[in-house]
């Protein structure tokens, strides 16, 4: 009974192919970046309508620069994919009465929230690992080798970044009736905090985990405070979501 909701999430993910399309979408997003950068001169030459004899010289990016561009793509478009996949986690279940039914069974709210969060967290981690593996493969094949330890640390930070953002989304989605609004607010908060970090010294904030996943490929970085505040944000988000989860829709 303790893992029934968690198992149901995986069964539902398989039936609606979420278990397939999320990792595939992240892998395609990550692998296309090194391929596009490699063939960029040819793409420009074939579609640029340049005069005959024009020579296009584009500096060949380093493997680290390629992986940084992959990280940026995943942090932007990849995060949108993950949040959209989880958009109806609570809102749809309020409307069809599933959450109210679970409450009638006297299932702890914390179990409901954590089971659903754990499903999406594991699915996201798996997708990011596959995406990073695909990006690393094409980077080595098309460009050159890179420091494997730095890449592993970068991938771990990227995973932490996604876990923090997913937790914030679950916190907002538990309080609000609309999953769409929860996605917009999560992305909006992410955008605002990213801007503030660029203007103010907020290197200790968990929103630094994303940029650090790129910086660690080029230089040494301080990871302690962003990781610590990230853990705090995750626990607080899940705690408040468990305490304040709305079980019914006003339209129900």
Order of helices and strands: HHHHHHHHHH
Give the N-terminus to C-terminus distance in angstroms: 27 Å
Mean pLDDT: 89
Helical run tally:
10
Poorly predicted sequence stretches spanning 5 or more consecutive residues: none
Radius of gyration: 21 Å
Transmembrane segments: 120-139, 151-173, 180-200, 223-241
Keywords: Membrane, Transmembrane, Transmembrane helix
Protein name: ABC-2 transporter permease
Describe the structure.
- The structure is a single chain.
- By secondary structure, the protein is mostly helical.
- It has one domain.
- Helices cover 75% and strands 0% of the residues.
- The longest helix is centred in the middle third of the chain and has 34 residues, at 109-142.
Brief sketch in words of this structure:
With 252 residues, the protein is mostly helical.
Helices and strands, with pairings:
Blueprint: H1 4-15, H2 18-47, H3 63-85, H4 91-95, H5 98-104, H6 109-142, H7 148-175, H8 179-199, H9 209-215, H10 224-244
List keywords for this structure.
252 residues; mainly alpha; 10 helices; globular; transmembrane
């Amino acid at each position: 009974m303790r893992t029934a909701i968690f198992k149901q999430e995986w069964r539902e993910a398989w039936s609606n192919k979420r278990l397939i399309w999320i990792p595939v979408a992240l892998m395609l997003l990550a692998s296309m970046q090194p391929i596009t950068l490699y063939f960029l001169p040819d793409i420009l030459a074939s579609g640029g309508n340049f005069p005959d004899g024009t020579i296009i010289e584009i500096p060949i990016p380093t493997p680290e620069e390629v992986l940084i561009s992959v990280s940026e793509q995943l942090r932007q478009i990849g995060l949108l994919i993950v949040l959209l996949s989880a958009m109806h986690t609570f809102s749809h279940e309020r409307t069809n009465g599933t959450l109210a039914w679970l409450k009638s069974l006297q299932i702890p709210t914390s179990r409901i929230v954590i089971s659903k969060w754990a499903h999406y967290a594991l699915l996201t981690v798996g997708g990011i690992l596959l995406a990073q593996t695909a990006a690393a493969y094409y980077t080595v094949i098309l460009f050159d080798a890179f420091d494997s330890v730095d890449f592993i640390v970068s991938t771990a930070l990227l995973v932490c970044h996604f876990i923090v953002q997913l937790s914030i989304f679950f916190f907002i989605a538990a309080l609000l009736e609309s999953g769409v609004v929860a996605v917009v607010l999560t992305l909006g908060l992410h955008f605002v905090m990213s801007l503030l970090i660029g203007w103010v010294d907020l290197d200790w904030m968990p929103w630094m985990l994303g940029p650090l996943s790129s910086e660690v490929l080029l230089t040494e970085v301080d990871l302690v405070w962003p990781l610590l505040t990230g853990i705090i944000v995750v626990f607080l988000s899940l705690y408040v979501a468990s305490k304040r989860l709305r079980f019914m829709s006003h339209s129900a």
